[in-house]
Amino acid sequence: MSDRPTRMDPRDATELRAVITCMGRKTHATIIDISMGGMCIYLNSHIPISPEEEIEIKTEEMGYLTGTVRWFRRPRLGVQLDMSSNTAAKVQSYYKKYIKHYLMA
Q: PilZ domain: from which residue to which, for each copy (predicted)?
């Protein structure tokens, strides 16, 4: 058995430009997949990041989100979003507007 956490929600491929902030340092990035509870992010340049770090994610489509790094394998990281009602509304709005299969459900 694996010690890796299991995903709660299925992820959908995307290509969202983002700015990631961790410990006061920023880098441009691309969100390469997203779910209602998390995302995988491809960092464009190196900044100090490790699992359990709190990060801020800024996108044009969803504004500011916060989350916790769950894994990091340079240049990719997995993030669990801090699921306040505001964050959930932002992610759900993104799905309604941009993810086609969501509209068919």
A: 6-95
